[in-house]
């Protein structure tokens, strides 16, 4: 077993930190990474170590370097910023097989309750600010009756939550499943608004649920965050059974 030197430890730390950053940026739609100097300060290592870590991730296909432009997440990764509407082919399958919607809700119940719990335990100050800002965007969208903006903020919130969990497996799994989950969240929002008499009340309830999740994360209360997420997903399921 090779001896772990300070240099190799620093490189390993930089690579692990960079992998987490790749997941976070890939999930919230920012494909370009910060400059080397900023990364070195954030990770507490030298720019040389950051450069070596970047090259390792380039060789793995996770990053791409563009001369004069910077370092970018590889273009074949799922893009969280892609327009969630009109629906992709996956939604056509959901329309043809409604049971898939229930399956997706079950999947989200398992995955997102865990993500909310971990985010409450592990989110840093920047991530908590971003989650609160996204809830603010949702609040404005609900106030304005802007269903498209609400759906976009809702999707962004859940993507940020996965990144804030700081769990590499959850983050990678979400990155792979994000297209389906994004479409599911968006369709739920649009479908929920088809009944004009209930649309405003349901939008307000969805907002309150996201506020509760965010508030629990800001308080660093993992049990409350997981419970608030469970209540949100249960609500999403109930509104289509009515």
Structural notes for this entry:
Keywords: DNA-binding, Transcription, Transcription regulation. Residues 8-76 form the HTH gntR-type domain. With 242 residues, this protein is mainly α. It folds into 2 domains: 7-73, Arc Repressor Mutant, subunit A (Orthogonal Bundle); 89-239, GntR ligand-binding domain-like (Four Helix Bundle (Hemerythrin (Met), subunit A)). It has 10 helices and 2 strands. The chain has a two-stranded antiparallel sheet. A hairpin with a 3-residue loop joins strand 1 and strand 2. Helix 5 packs across helix 7, helix 6 runs antiparallel to helix 9 and helix 7 runs antiparallel to helix 8. The radius of gyration is 19 Å and the shape is elongated.
Question: Main attributes?
Answer:
2 domains, about 5% strand, mainly alpha, about 240 residues, Four Helix Bundle (Hemerythrin (Met), subunit A), Tscrpt_reg_HTH_GntR, 2 strands
Trace the largest sheet across and list its strands. Answer: 1-2
Give the integer mean of the pLDDT values: 79
User: DSSP strand (E) fraction?
Assistant: under 5%
What percentage of residues falls in helices of 4 or more residues? Answer: over 70%
What is the CATH first-level class name of the largest domain? Answer: Mainly Alpha
Structural class: mainly alpha
Order of helices and strands: HHHEEHHHHHHH
Tally of strands: 2
Shape assignment: elongated
Distance between termini? 61 Å
How many H/I helical runs?
10
**CATH architectural designation of the largest domain:** Up-down Bundle
Question: What is the number of domains?
Answer: 2
CATH fold title of the largest domain: Four Helix Bundle (Hemerythrin (Met), subunit A)
Protein name: GntR family transcriptional regulator
Organism: Bordetella genomosp. 11
Domain HTH gntR-type: 8-76
Keywords: DNA-binding, Transcription, Transcription regulation
């Amino acid at each position: 077993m090779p001896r772990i030197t300070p240099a190799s430890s620093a490189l390993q730390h930089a690579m692990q930190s960079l992998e987490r950053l790749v997941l976070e940026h890939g999930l919230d739609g920012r494909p370009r990474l910060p400059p080397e100097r900023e990364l070195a300060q954030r990770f507490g290592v030298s720019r040389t170590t950051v450069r070596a870590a970047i090259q390792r991730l380039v060789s793995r296909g996770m990053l791409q370097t563009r001369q004069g432009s910077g370092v970018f997440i590889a273009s074949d990764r799922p893009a969280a910023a892609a327009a969630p509407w009109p629906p992709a082919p996956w939604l056509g399958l959901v329309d043809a097989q409604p049971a898939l919607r229930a399956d997706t809700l079950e999947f989200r119940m398992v995955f997102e309750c865990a993500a909310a719990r971990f985010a409450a335990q592990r989110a840093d100050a920047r991530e908590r600010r971003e989650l609160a800002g996204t809830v603010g965007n949702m609040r404005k969208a609900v106030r304005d009756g802007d269903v498209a903006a609400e759906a976009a903020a809702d999707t962004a919130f859940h993507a940020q939550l996965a990144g804030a969990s700081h769990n590499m497996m959850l983050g990678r799994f979400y990155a792979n499943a994000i297209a389906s989950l994004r479409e599911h969240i968006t369709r739920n929002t649009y479908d929920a608004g088809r009944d004009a008499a209930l649309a405003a009340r349901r939008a307000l309830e969805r907002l309150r649920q996201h506020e509760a999740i965010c508030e629990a994360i800001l308080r660093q209360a993992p049990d409350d965050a997981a419970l608030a997420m469970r209540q949100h997903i249960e609500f999403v399921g109930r509104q289509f059974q009515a």
